[in-house]
UniProtKB/TrEMBL annotation:
PROSITE patterns: GLUTAREDOXIN_2. This is Glutaredoxin. The keyword Nucleotide-binding does not apply. One of its GO terms (molecular function) is disulfide oxidoreductase activity. The lineage of its organism: Bacteria, Pseudomonadati, Pseudomonadota, Alphaproteobacteria, Rhodospirillales.
Amino acid sequence: MDASVRDRIQGEIDSNDIVLFMKGTPTFPQCGFSAVVVQVLNHLEVDYKGINVLEDPSVRDGIKEFSNWPTIPQLYVKGEFIGGCDIVREMYETGELTDLMATRGIAVAAE
Ligand SMILES: N[C@@H](CCC(=O)N[C@@H](CS)C(=O)NCC(=O)O)C(=O)O
Ligand code: FES
């Protein structure tokens, strides 16, 4: 991928504790898979940056190569790739996601 795309992705991940690469925006998700992750993050009441890959095909493709993960959405917490919709939903349901956030110093809303 283009170095500028890699730098942009790296920059977003470095400067935001939680980054969600998604289709659409947190206020208007344009795919059900992205909407699930938005719902989880909103439920946890954490701040996050949504990056709409539909606005930029180079980021849409670039993030797949960057994470070595073939689909959107993709969630990053403190620079670490967590996963897509299925993984996030599963980790939320088991409480693992809340624990992961807490371990990394991110305050999460009480259940
Ligand atoms: N099982 C996936 C569902 C996500 C998914 O299948 N995404 C597709 C459709 S939105 C995708 O990103 N396809 C490649 C693309 O649209 O660039 C997950 O857990 O995140
Ligand atoms: S945009 Fe069609 S499944 Fe995500």
